[in-house]
Amino acid sequence: MYSKTNEGARAVVWRQFQNHGYCAFASLKRVICIGVLSAATLSIAARAQGTPDTSAMQQPRVDDEHEEQLDEVTVSGTMAPLTQLQSARIVSVLSRADIERAGVQSVNDLFKLATGVDVRQRGGFGIQTDISIDGGTFDQMTILLNGVNISNPHTGHLTADFPVSIDDIERIEVLEGAASRVYGATAFGGAINIVTRHDTSTGATLAVQGGSFGTFEGGARGTLPFRRVVNRLSGGGGRSDGGTTNSDWRKGQLYYQGDLSTDDFSLDWQFGMSRKAYGANTFYSAAYPDQYERNERYLMSVGGETKGRFHFTPSLSWSRSYDNFELVRGERFGENFHQTDVYGLRLGGYFNWWGGRTAVSTELRHEGIQSTSLGRDLEESEYHHAHGEHGIYYTRSDQRTNVGYSLEHNILLDRWTLSAGLLADMNSGLNRRFRFYPGVDVAYRPAMGWKLYLSYNKGFRLPTFTDLYYQSPTHNGNRDLRPEVNHSTQLGVQYAMRGVQATVRGFYHRGRRMIDWVMYDATDTYHSANFDLDNTGVQAQTQLDLPQLVGHRIFVERLSIGYTYMHQHRHDNTTIYKSNYAMEYLRHKLVASLSHRIVSRLQATWSLRWQDRMGSYIRYGATYVDPVTGYLRGESTGELTSYKPYATLDVNLQWNAPKYQLYLALTNLTNHRYYDLGNIRQPGLWVMGGAKLRIGR
């Protein structure tokens, strides 16, 4: 995965991955204890292989019998890199093999099979997707691409707009719980890092797929090394009629990544762009069933690392997004335009000394928006043309700058690891004073294969520009919103030996000033408001690698199962008629998968998902033409309808050959129709088939 060479220490590279800084949050230069995700659970700690790192302090002793099984790798997740055995936090990792085995068509579909992750879609292929962790909301998590924070301050609805395809991804890493001391201002409830493939040999891959509801996609990616520089380019696009009402879409993306490595330093850079347009079925309210949206996004970043005694790890990034939302498709009524820019600069590094391993960093993040509806009113002389439009101007804007200083120290003992750090953060959008966010992680290794861990971390999140300013016939933003604060405590035990991996985790997230859109009575509009809300839960998951367990190849290759239970408690007595997001959490979620061979190169993976969502939605009946506006409206019945539990069963069939792959994916085999978002009945059976051709590899 990721290898470092330190004085007095020997780091062993995890052979599945390349020795580059993008590996396992390595572009963040932080350390996490890795777990291996099955396609069904995105869970459980990885099988450790080899000998542990030995640094200035005494390291755990490994006897010869288990040396290969417990081979330690240098991974990232805290600010300074530690080995897997030393790390005190756990990150779930979905490998490239797991991604291919799952046979899903979008990045977001992978998260449906993670026990601690909640995915709510209005349409297929991740076009309109909200992702959250441990009962939080889609605004309360950080999304990273190769360690670069691509979270959108406009709204979390757009955060899952990735410029990469499934074929670009080497693995996905999920960190659960607050981590502002490590990831900064947006790491309220967790982080997801998408790590792209880091292949170095010349070659190309061509892919095409099609299926139900007029869906078609095509794409290509290639790698071209030139001396010490390796270039990778990919692109693709597709279209669909959609599986639900007003969910048709068109999309395209382009992504480039390059890297340079010398004896003294390494350098990585990337550029991505994506465009999509889609029917935004009931995006903000079922009162307007014919909404439409267009998004356009660009991002660039460059980062490096020196290889001396002090590892200096600077990075620079920029992203821009354009958004055009139509409350009524094809009409100016309720239409708005937005342009969001985010600039990031991070300077930091780490070093070893007799007292342990210390890391320091400073980070600057500037967020700004120009809009026809969000922000503070501009003078007419300050108006700017809306992107791609004639006669339409951005008349409002807002901006804020976040400055953070982080310090972390790691103490490594025979069976113990203690990692403690502090973030001092100041934001110009508040009162320009520093606020402090600490974190402490402790791990104890009582015996071979076992790890006990306990952590406390404090996180926070600023309101999005939508939370502050959005106004519509159905929504009212609140400029007086205060930042959310999360006190996150986790306790768990992990077992990982050859062929068997298991984790049990309990968590308590004490949320203060949580932000949600709520109605106070049946005739009210939605208001963005603060209130105190706690999330408590327990998660258990296990995975069996049968050939590894029995020592030879057998019919069944992998079996995994995971379950999460959560409970919420709100502290105030204010009557809330309807919560739009925060209190519509998953009380129960069960996922399981089974992978087995059929004949020769043919393999099948079965995935089962059962979940029970709390909360309810206002049921809308027949549509009618509004006599005032003349536009189509949904008619509210005024009745609250509770979400019902449901289960889905999927199967993916693959024929794998060295130069090509054929596959058939059947989603929702039982053709069950269910509701995961109010008034949006999800499609039944969805069939997709495709092929991939590999050239020069």
Describe how the helices and strands are arranged.
Elements: E1 33-37, E2 74-75, E3 82-83, E4 90-94, H1 96-102, H2 107-111, E5 117-121, E6 129-133, E7 142-145, E8 148-149, E9 169-176, H3 180-183, E10 190-196, E11 203-211, E12 215-226, E13 229-240, E14 249-261, E15 265-279, E16 292-306, E17 311-312, E18 315-326, E19 336-353, E20 356-371, E21 376-377, E22 384-385, E23 393-394, E24 396-412, E25 416-427, E26 435-444, E27 450-461, H4 465-469, E28 475-476, E29 484-497, E30 500-519, E31 526-545, H5 546-550, E32 556-570, E33 578-579, E34 586-599, E35 602-613, E36 616-625, E37 632-642, E38 646-656, E39 660-667, E40 675-677, E41 680-681, E42 686-695
Parallel strand pairs: 1-4, 7-10, 28-31
Antiparallel strand pairs: 2-3, 4-9, 5-6, 7-8, 9-10, 11-12, 11-42, 12-13, 13-14, 14-15, 15-16, 16-18, 17-19, 18-19, 19-20, 20-24, 21-24, 22-23, 24-25, 25-26, 26-27, 27-29, 29-30, 30-31, 30-33, 31-32, 32-34, 34-35, 35-38, 36-37, 38-39, 39-42, 40-41
Radius of gyration: 24 Å
**What structural class do helix, strand and pairing data support?**
mainly beta
| Count of helix runs | 5
Low-confidence stretches: 1-75
Beta-strand residue percentage: over 45%
Global morphology: globular
Largest sheet: 22 strands, antiparallel, barrel
Provide an overview of this structure.
This protein is mainly β and 697 residues long. A hairpin with a 3-residue loop joins strand 11 and strand 12. The protein is built from five helices and 42 strands. The strands form seven sheets. It has a 22-stranded antiparallel barrel. Helix content is 4%, strand content 55%.
